[in-house]
């Protein structure tokens, strides 16, 4: 493979695609396009619509089914490692099937930005490519979209913030010395377990899409409504991408 290009596409809104990303997509010889289980077919449709808009024909798209990560047991690290191996094998198989395993420019459309809570770089490393053969095109992150949609600054003046996951928040709690948390990948609604009487939450789902949802307020007052709206949206669409910011009010 001459090059694999990991292209950040934000949340799939065509207006979030940078000019650099458009050029990289148009120049690709082959675009790898993952498909998840049937309930998430809309995710692939968003990518396909974007590719069609940029003039990428079906002959340049390699479809593959995403393997499902094993989720039983306490060996989370091992589960992820096995999953990444399985995905890398699907990438290889797609390239071979399209006779493009040796000399082509391959692209993969990545939600958000490839360097923030995404494993595409780690999976690409399993293909045995040199660093010069892996290119990253940054994209708008859901963190930026969340703050923009709510009209808030990501950080307080001169203050740090922490970007973490629901799993880590549940495991370690709210870290000392940090008043602003951005929480991603929280399918378990960990905010429900946060006991901070002076915390506000800014939540968003499907950011930048027509079905965008936003809720903000004092955590204790709105967390039940967020969980209810989240459950209904997931049932309606078959999938959900959401993120939230927690901020402790100053004493």
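^ structure tokens above, recovered residues below v
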């Amino acid at each position: 493979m001459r090059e694999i290009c990991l292209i950040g596409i934000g949340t799939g809104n065509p207006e979030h695609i940078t000019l650099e990303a458009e050029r990289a997509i148009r120049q690709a010889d082959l675009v790898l396009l993952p498909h998840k289980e049937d309930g998430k077919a809309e995710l692939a449709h968003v990518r396909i619509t974007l590719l069609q808009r940029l003039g990428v024909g079906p002959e340049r798209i390699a479809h593959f089914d995403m393997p499902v990560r094993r989720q039983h047991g306490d060996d989370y690290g091992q589960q992820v490692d096995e999953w990444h191996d399985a995905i890398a094998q699907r990438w290889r198989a797609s390239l071979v099937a399209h006779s493009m395993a040796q000399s082509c420019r391959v692209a993969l459309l990545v939600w958000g930005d490839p360097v923030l809570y995404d494993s595409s770089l780690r999976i690409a490393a399993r293909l045995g490519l040199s660093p010069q053969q892996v290119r990253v095109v940054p994209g708008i992150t859901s963190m930026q979209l969340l703050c923009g949609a709510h009209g808030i600054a990501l950080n307080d003046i001169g203050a740090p913030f922490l970007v973490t996951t629901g799993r880590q928040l549940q495991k370690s709690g709210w870290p000392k010395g940090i008043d602003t948390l951005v929480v991603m990948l929280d399918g378990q609604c960990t905010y429900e377990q946060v006991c901070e009487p002076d915390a506000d939450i800014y939540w968003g789902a499907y950011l930048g899409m027509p079905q965008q949802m936003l809720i903000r307020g004092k955590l204790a007052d709105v967390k039940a409504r967020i969980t209810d709206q989240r459950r209904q949206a997931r049932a309606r669409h078959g999938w959900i991408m959401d993120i939230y910011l927690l901020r402790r009010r100053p004493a």
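Residues 76-97 form the longest helix (22 residues).
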